[in-house]
Amino acid sequence: GACDGYHPEYTEAFDIAGIRAAAALATAVGDEQEAKQWNALAGKLFDQYHRRFGERLAEEYGSYSVLWPCRVYPSRQSPAFEQFKNVEAQKPDGWRYFPLATAHQGLLAGNRAAGHKTIAGHLAHEQMQGWYAFDEGGQSGPGNWSKVRTNWNKDVAMPHGWAIAELWLLLRDSLVYEDQDQLVLLAGVDPRWFSDTRGMAVRDLPTHFGTLSFSYRPNGGQAQLNLEGRAAPPGGFVVALPKSPVRVEADGKGIVPAQDGRVTVPAGTKRVTIEMTSLAKKPVEERK
CB burial class (10 A; 0-12, 13-18, 19+) of residue 121? Predict the structure, then answer.
């Protein structure tokens, strides 16, 4: 439990994630007996974790680890979902990586603003204006600000890999993230982008299920999502729309959307047609 003092809600989350990963590796190489042993240990540790922290997952360092990056609980229909679903956008204050990690919990629990508003706030920070490199945000190890033409605090570590990685990984997952056997698309994107006539596109993005490419473009009251690339998640694709659509078709077949606007389409789908009453006909100003 040693991490900035005593924080087992953080370190034990990584223990569970690591042991589950060991089980997955054993399965991948065909060692089912070892996989069974690792899974049993992970299950035992999860039960202990849940008894101790299950009702206060968002407290202390749990808010930096439970869903992201450790995936201790499922992101939907779980105690973690209930406790993180209201996590809003986080400001770039204090230690840079912690607000970003907290926002990531909210994103995976379905809060869109935790994605795009957090990213927008961080990109607007003065350290990101031409630098695209955060420092650690607090008194830490020897820094290198003094070696460049700047007045930033020379006693703060810079550039800081953890802080920068948290930002880019939040950006990536706002576009697409793995959720068990599914790929979730556009969960952290600004709602206005769904009606921007310039559309959206992702090209050759690596995922656990293969390289993903897709494009989205609205036209009048409809939008077209074209799925390309080799990504084939067994559980299909989840298109996280900002509101529930009027009608959805996947390769011509009707799909019933969830009340929260999420639409699940099977792997292998090439074209998704979405009808929404709120789609506009002009670009969003100052899109970033």
Answer: middle
Residue identified by tokens 């999420």 is 262
- 169 burial (CB, 10 Å; 0-12 / 13-18 / 19+) is middle
State CA 230 to chain mean position distance: 21
- CA dist 2 → 7, 9, 10, 122, 124 (Å): 6, 10, 9, 29, 34
Strand order in the sheet with 200-205: 200-205, 212-219, 222-229, 271-275, 247-250, 253-254
DSSP code for 258:
P
User: 103 in helix, strand or coil?
Assistant: helix
Residue 120 sits at the vertex; the CA angle it makes with 9 and 197, to the nearest 5 degrees, is 125
**Please, which residues bridge with residue 247 across strands?**
275
| Cα-based distances in Å from 17 to 11, 102, 193, 271 | 10, 18, 34, 35
How long, in residues, is the chain? 288
pLDDT per residue as tens, the chain (288 positions): 688 899 999 999 999 999 999 999 999 999 999 999 999 999 999 999 999 999 999 999 999 999 999 999 999 889 999 999 999 999 999 999 999 999 999 999 999 999 999 999 999 998 888 777 888 988 877 677 777 777 777 788 888 889 999 999 999 999 999 999 999 999 999 999 999 999 999 999 999 999 999 999 998 889 999 999 899 999 999 999 998 888 999 999 999 998 888 999 999 999 999 998 766 555 555 555
Radius of gyration of the chain (CA): 21
Return all residues near 45 (Cβ < 8 A) that are at least 6 apart.
Answer: 12, 15, 16, 19
CA atoms of 166 and 186, how far apart (whole Å): 18
